[in-house]
Amino acid sequence: MFIRYKLALLFSLVVAGLLTLFSAVIYQISASYREEEFLGRLENKARTTARYLMDVKEIDNDLLKIIDQNSLTSLFEEQVLVFDEHNRLLYSSLDDQPPQYDPALLAEVREEKRVEQSSAKIDLIALALPSSLKASGSEYVVMASAYDKFGKSKLIYLRNTLMICWVVGVGLTVVVSGLLAGLFLRPIATINTQIQQITAQNLKERLPEGNGRDEMAQLAINFNQMLNRLNLSFEQQKSFVSHASHELRTPLAAMKTDIQSGLEEALSSEEYRLILRDLFQDTQRLIGLTNGLLQLARPLDPVLRRKLISIPELLLDIYAELSSLRKAQKLVFEPILDERRELLVPGDEALLKTLFTNLIDNACKYSPTHEAFIRIGSDASHCLIDIEDKGIGIPPEDQERVFGPFFRANNALIYSGYGIGLAVSQRIVEWHGGSISLRSTLGQGSTFTVRLPLS
Ligand code: ADP
User: Most buried among 51, 124, 221, 371, by the most CB within 10 A?
Assistant: First the structure.
């Protein structure tokens, strides 16, 4: 079922429930009021008749009947009966019909002193009244009953009015709530239609953001922001693929030319050796590139393989490995004090090794002395690692771009490289919830600072 119909139905049910409750309360209060008021009138009647009969000696039964039947307050189908202490009927206001009463009621009245009864037709009140003439303890019973014709017809009129109001109210609510729900949900329907038209081909399309304040506008704004992010990552992916194919094509084209000349010309063994050496270099480059691409493309699982890594120990390991491999490189550690060894970072050891090896390799590669200066520090929540060199530096306009895949600054082109290392490093740092920043002065050197959250 559509939300629109659900909302309308729910709202109508609530209103119908409330109307039923209010109507029932109003009807009940009116019915009680009618009964109370009519029984009050009956009681007056009963007491007056009893008083005339008992206390006024000049009035006999016949005179009392005439008074009863002709009084202004006489009621519809009225009947007043008075019984003495032996339950003998002393007086009946009806002269042509036999009195109608339930003899069991007499005993109940003598017990309770006052009994009220209301049936669909007749309301009745029966009172046990002490006689002022007789000895104390003897009691008369007076019963007054009548049909509240006007009160009951008013009640029926009220009931019919309430029922008509209920039907009209609920009907109106169904229509109005249906219209209102449609009106409020129309922006969602519009957004839906527009979303259906957005495909990978027209990711630049945006939803109208309305007044920019209500929930619908917020939804459109958030959706547009998501499209911005998707579009950016699509663009990045496209440029990544075109860069990657370009980078792969260069060594492959060189290899093809080498192989062609080897096949087509009769060459000396020395010349074949040269061709093989070129092929070897191009293959090396291809391997380096594909390794870098694999690292960039590999999805980094957000939870798996994290353990606590001591950053000072990790850097000392890298130092030991690099020193034994490449004698030309020189790593200078600012003193790592023993107490700093507990700088523990939750992370993946292999990835962190790749990160720092990339940065240290660059520092040594891009400085004539092949020196990298490493500093480890911390603040309240992060471990801070500086990798500094006194090398060629990075031009200010390129400093933002060096973290993009395949970007190489002009002053670095004479050095070997693929422009992937920093992109991979940044990805690794972000996976660890940290950040990487760069300070560099052209011709003087660069410092890369890695911030990793401590455990
Ligand atoms: P590669 O070093 O293979 O070119 P990287 O992604 O590691 O790729 O670096 C990208 C670019 O950033 C380099 O080509 C170079 O222009 C610049 N760069 C990185 N590190 C340094 C550094 N320590 N000194 C100067 N330039 C650097």
Answer: 124
